[in-house]
Every structure is written in C-alpha cells, then in structure tokens.
Amino acid sequence: MPVATINDHLVQVDEEGFLTDYDEWNEDLARVLAAQIGIELTEDHWKAISFLRSDYKLTGETPTLRRVTTVGGIPTKELFVLFPKKPAKKMAYIAGLPKPRGCV
Amino acid sequence: MTTEIPQALIPKFEDDDTGRKIAFICSKGNLDMAYPGLILANAALGEGVEVHLFFTFWGLDMISKKHMDSLKFTPLGNTATHMPQGLGGLPGMTAVATSMMRKQIASIGVPGVPEMLEQIVASGGHLWACRMSTDMQHLEMGDLYDAVEGIISASDFIEMTEGAQLLFI
Hints:
The complex is a heterodimer of chains A (104) and B (169).
Chain A: E1 3-6, E2 9-12, H1 27-36, H2 43-59, H3 65-70, H4 76-82, H5 87-94
Antiparallel strand pairs in A: 1-2
Chain B: E1 3-4, E2 21-26, H1 31-46, E3 50-55, H2 85-88, H3 93-107, H4 113-122, E4 126-130, H5 131-136, E5 150-152, H6 154-160, E6 165-168
Parallel strand pairs in B: 2-3, 2-6, 3-4, 4-5
Helix pairs in contact in B: 1-4
C-alpha cells in the first residue's frame, strides 16, 4: 500500500491517491487534498464533505451523488458547481474516503 | 505547512478536457430497457462527459408525460427470466412482473424513470425527442417531460453529435 506525506504526516493511500484509513483524515488534510485538485474549500464545500464523512461512518460506504442530494439535501446542480466535472469522486477524495461503488 | 504528495498519487480528475461526448439513442419503451441508457448517461455525466439522449420510436415513452412513470416489463420473449415462456402470456403476468421489477430496482436505491431523468438534467445532460416518432404518435412539446429541449429530426441529431461516441439501446 503506498504512503504519501501530506502536511508532514504519513497517510495510507490507494494506488490513485485516495486515503484508505478513515481516521487518518482531518480538516487540515482536506484543505491540502482539495488544493491539490484545484479546489478552495468554502462553507458549502464543507457541508458536502461533512455529509460524506458522517454518511460513510453510518453505512460503511461512500455515498453516491444521488445520495448526497436525496439524503444530504445538497442539489445535484450545486455539487457540479462546487466540485466541477467529477463531483462524486472529487468529494470522496477530499473527504478521505474511497470512490463511491454505487452506479446511481 | 509542507505538502509532498507524489504527482503519481494525485487522482487525475481533469482528464476529460478532451471534449468527450456520448450520445445515447433510446429506442425502447419497456421498463427494463429504459434503465441501461439512463444509468450509463448518469454515470457519464458524473465523469464530466457531455451527454445527449435522443428518444425515438418506443423510447419516446420514456419522456412522454403520459407513460414515463408507468413503463412495463414483460417476461415474454425474454429467456433470461428463466421462466417457462407460456407463463409470460398469462393474463395479469405483465403487471406482476412489472411490480416485481420495480421493487427490485427500488431496493437497490435506484429511482423511477422520471427521477432518473431529473438527475440527468440536473447533472447537465440534454434530452431530445425524435421528430418522426412524435409525428407518428401526434405528440407535441407539451406532451413531453418538461426538461426535453426540443423535437429534432434525425439529421439534426446526427449534426449535433458530431465527434460523439454513440450508443443505440
């Protein structure tokens, strides 16, 4: 398993760079991860990230885009603005979670 | 604060500046045949791909206000249901099979056709109706799902999808 150094901390990541240990994530790390993919986190971004983190804890799976909208209450359109082009994967990356498995 | 993520370990999210475009031609109005196009279109949008859906012939039912929420499934002629074919023709079997399929789809968290279309449009997908099919069925824009952008001819569609990857369903 690859290891990356972010903010002077060693973190476990998969071969694409997604964090693999839920507990190695923190908010400072999220800011760095977001910056790596060209996103500066605003309050609206945090709302989505927090939902992903809490939903993952609850279900053991990264929520799909649809779930972030229907359960997390953030409109799909807004997610495409906050995390352009590939919202589901970008959110998961910043939230330190695996890519969503679900198709819808 | 130092950041030393090796370049190879940052996911490549912006690969799609290649202008990838996919067009889906939806030609079937059976419940089971509505989903492949909708699911794939939704997935493509989530990957940052430009998506167009063209609804033609029976596929028009997927965007007709009258039928979009009541598409049906029949086991008739479909050996993959692994039921004796004669059963499929019994009275009421289409309703039973449709209800079972709807439950199966809902049980994995996938919504009905109108909601799938809503999500596709919210994700930036484009919906088009086929001119010849609407003429045959005497349908106008008012009869179609509100987010349908227009009724267009086959040539309009071909022109619009220049350079796109095409999927006929």
